[in-house]
Design a protein that fits this description.
about 220 residues, Ribosomal Protein L25, Chain P, 6-stranded mixed barrel, 4-stranded mixed beta sheet, 3 helices, elongated
Length: about 220
C-alpha cells in the first residue's frame, strides 16, 4: 500500500481566535501525539486534507520542520452545518507495529431475502480490526447475495483477509433480512350509549311512579 505524504506546519498559537484565523486562511488545526513523545500542534491546508480524505487514506507521512513522521488519522471533527473539517487528530505509529482501528463495512449484491420481499438492515457500518499500518484496508466488502429471509451475517462470517484480525464481537450482527411489519390501524369504534328514555309529561292530576323503565303515569284511583 502506498503511503501518501501530507505537508503540515507547526503552530504555536492556540485558542478560539487563533483557530478561527487559521480556518479563515483555509487551514485546519491538528495535533500529533503518541509513542510517549510530546504532542505537536500542527496546521495543514484544507484542500490538501480533503484530497487525502477523498483518497480514503488512513496512514500518512506527515512532514514538518524537515522531518517526516508516520501517523494514523485517528479522529476527524466536522462542522456539519457548513460541511467543513474543524480539527484532525493524528496518532504516531511504527510501520512494524500492529494497530487497532475501525474500518467501514460495505455491503454489495442483492440478497435472496430482499427479492422475496424482505427488508435489509445494515446494523454495523464499521468494524474494529488489528493489522500492520501498511495493511489497513480501505473497507471490508461483504456479499449479501445468499442472505435469505430471517438470516443474518455476523462478524465471525466476514471475509478472511491476509494480515487482518477482527476485534469486534464475533457474534455481533453486520446485516440481517426481516419481514416487513405491516402496521394495522384499528379504527376506534365509537360506543353510543342508549338514548335516555324521556317519558310523556303526565296530565294534570296524574301521579308519577318510578319504575325500572323510568317514570310512567300512575293509575287513577277510583
Amino acid at each position: 500500500m502506498k503511503i501518501l505524504e501530507l505537508k503540515t506546519e507547526k503552530r504555536t498559537t492556540k485558542g478560539s481566535k487563533a483557530v478561527k484565523k487559521l480556518r479563515d486562511d483555509g487551514k485546519i488545526p491538528a495535533v500529533l501525539y503518541g509513542h510517549k513523545q510530546d504532542n505537536v500542534m500542527l496546521c495543514l491546508r484544507e484542500d490538501d486534507f480533503v484530497r487525502i480524505l477523498n483518497a480514503r487514506a488512513r496512514m500518512l507521512y506527515l512532514t514538518f520542520d524537515n522531518k517526516k513522521e508516520s501517523a494514523l488519522i485517528k479522529e476527524v471533527q466536522y462542522d456539519n452545518l457548513v460541511d467543513r473539517v474543524l480539527h484532525v487528530d493524528f496518532s504516531r505509529v511504527d510501520l512494524n507495529e500492529r494497530v487497532k482501528l475501525r474500518v467501514p463495512v460495505e455491503l454489495h449484491g442483492e440478497s435472496i431475502g430482499v427479492k422475496e420481499g424482505g427488508v435489509l438492515t445494515h446494523v454495523m457500518k464499521d468494524v474494529e480490526i488489528e493489522c500492520l499500518p501498511t495493511a489497513i484496508p480501505e473497507k471490508i466488502k461483504v456479499s449479501i447475495s445468499e442472505l435469505g429471509m430471517g438470516k443474518s451475517i455476523h462478524v465471525k462470517e466476514l471475509p478472511v483477509l491476509e494480515g487482518i484480525q477482527y476485534i469486534s464481537d464475533a457474534e455481533a450482527v453486520i446485516a440481517s433480512i426481516h419481514h416487513i411489519v405491516e402496521e394495522k390501524v384499528v379504527a376506534e369504534e365509537e360506543i353510543l350509549a342508549e338514548p335516555e328514555v324521556i317519558t310523556k309529561k303526565p296530565k294534570e292530576g296524574e301521579e308519577v311512579e318510578e319504575g325500572e323503565g323510568g317514570a310512567k303515569p300512575a293509575e287513577k284511583k277510583a
